[in-house]
Structures are given as C-alpha cells and as structure tokens.
Amino acid sequence: MSTPPDTPPPPIAPEDSLIEYPSQFPIKVMGSKVDGFVHAITTIAQHFDPTFDPATIELRDSKGGNYLGITITVTATSREQLDELYRTLSTHPMVKVVL
Questions:
Q1: Is pLDDT larger for residue 8 or for residue 61?
Q2: Residue 94 · residue 37 · CB < 8 Å
Q3: pLDDT of residue 19
Q4: Cβ(42)–Cβ(50) under 8 Å?
Q5: What is the mean pLDDT of the segment spanning 83-93?
Q6: 17 partner at 20 to 30 Å CA-CA among 25, 34, 57, 62?
Q7: Which residues pair with 68 in a beta bridge?
Q8: 94 three-class SS
C-alpha cells in the first residue's frame, strides 16, 4: 500500500539524524550575479538564524562572471529549521540552486 502524495513524511527522530543539533551548517546558494542577491540571502539567513553573522559569508564568482555562489553558515537547531530554510531559499526568485 502506498502513501498518498499529500501526506507529509513521518518525523525523523533525533537519534536518526546525521546532524547533531545545534551545529554550524554551511549552505551553498547560487544565482545570477545581480544587485541585491547577497542582501536577499543574508536576510533569509538572519530570519532562520538570529545569530547569523554576515561577516562569515563566502562569495565566489562563476568562471564567466554571470553567476555568484554564496556560502552561508547558519546555526542549525533542528531538521525542521533546515528544511524550511532550504525551501525558502529554493523558492526565492533570485536563486538558481541550493546545496
């Protein structure tokens, strides 16, 4: 018997997680190199991690200079927090890829 598609997955027990919470968790975000991209990602990071320090951001231009890679390191406090952060970043119109 299969699970209906709109049924959320069962919660992951803390002992089943590969991540120990809280921990510093790097996230790579890529998008077009446009004004406001870094600010948008910083704002999202601060929303999910009030202790986020923008000074820790790492930036990398693509070879052609059209895209920008941003690495943010947030304090991960739960799987739910990380899932929602990834979802928010992935759906932002300036973002192409989140790793």
A1: 61
A2: yes
A3: 87
A4: no
A5: 98
A6: 57
A7: 31, 61
A8: coil
